[in-house]
Amino acid sequence: MIPLLTLIVVGIIVTIISLLAYWKVIDFKKAIVVATALILAGAGIQFLPLPNPPTPPAASTWYSGFTYRKLITINHSQVSSDPSPDNLTNFPVLVYISSDSYLKAHAQTDGDDIVFVAMDNETKYNSEKEMWNITGNGDLYAWVNVTTVYATVDTTFWLYYGNASVGNQDNATGVWDNYYVGVWHMNESDPLDIEDSTSYNNDVTLVSGTFVTDEYGVAGYCVNITGSTSYLSINDANSLSFIAGDDIPLTMEAWGKNAESGGGGNTLISKYLTGTGGEWILYNPTGSEKFRAYFRDSSPSGTSIYRYSENNKCRGDVDSSAHGGRGCKVCRESAQRG
Fold first, then answer.
1. Which residue of 53, 80, 270, 305 shows the fewest CB atoms closer than 10 Å?
2. φ/ψ (deg, to 5) at 175
């Protein structure tokens, strides 16, 4: 439809031209041509508009299919700056949420719809729930592989939940890349069911002695090793081997607490290559309240490397190139990722 104002203007001009032709001020034929051109021009204003510039697509404001979300923030002051600030790439971080009534009320009972998403509301992070709502209060322990953890500014991402139709959003092996050769959370109810979360599948294959499972530890459940000769065993695997002197660092990390105040010679984790040496061990020496990391290159008389932790409630985090880390895992080839 032609705008009313256009019709009025064109009509006035055509009327004036017609009067001028009637009074023979201008030629009648020219008047018809001019009037027709004006009418068509007026119509063209409506039917031939200038094209609008393309509208850029709107940024996604919500992760599709989910009803609720929470913002997770990593304080950059908690990211190592020694010797200088350095961003961490594809880094597993532990997310702990305590007694969250909204999460309890709106997430699936098994937590399958708990998912972690980048700030673009589209990129899904790999995650692994270690514990969910065991106490009935909405508690959550989850490991999340964050693409970049910034050292100079805070890192933020979303926790989405509230989707009754989706399956389990976890991808444990995606959290721990190929640099991690063993990650055991110890949150299984049966010690024989303790599994390695990495793609190397260095699962527990033998249980000897007595254990108490489903006890609270630093991050979710843990195993209480109650017998003095009790241990968990894993089949020999090249991925867990270490020979001092090569150019591939090894990081041993574990959360442990010694129940004996004077130190009881308890081992947290170790491996010994029978016949060729190459032992590594993280343990609490008898008579000491500190944990010790021990590396030996080739034989009982070979070169050894020691490093002590601070106290008998420490997080053991020692590696062969004198870099520490976090978690409960064994790493190869990248000490800075620990």
1. 53
2. -75, -40
Question: What percent of the chain is predicted at pLDDT more than 70?
Answer: 62
Number of C-beta neighbours around residue 253 at 10 A: 23
Q: What digits encode the pLDDT tens for the residues 72-95?
A: 999 999 887 777 788 999 999 999
Which tops the pLDDT comparison, 226 or 289? 226
pLDDT tens by residue, 11-28: 666 566 565 555 555 565
CA distances from 249 to 118, 324, 334 (A): 31, 11, 6
Q: Tell me the C-alpha distance between 81 and 89, whole Å.
A: 15
Helix (H, G, I), strand (E, B) or coil at 16: helix
Please report the pLDDT score of residue 312 as a whole number.
40
Residue-level pLDDT at 220: 83
Break the chain into its structural domains and give their ranges.
Answer: 4-46, 68-175, 180-337
Query: How many whole angstroms separate alpha carbon 132 and alpha carbon 136?
Result: 9
Q: Tell which residue, 183, 166, 307, 203, has the closest CA to residue 253.
A: 183
Contacts of 253 by beta carbon, 8 Å cutoff, 6+ apart: 315, 316, 317, 318, 324, 325, 326, 327, 328, 329, 330, 331, 338
Task: For residue 55, give the amino acid letter.
Answer: T
Instruction: Find the radius of gyration of the CA atoms of the chain.
Output: 35
Q: How much is the pTM?
A: 0.71
CA distance 216 to 98: 14
> Is 269 within 8 Å of 253 (Cβ atoms)?
no
**One-letter amino acid identity for 240?**
L
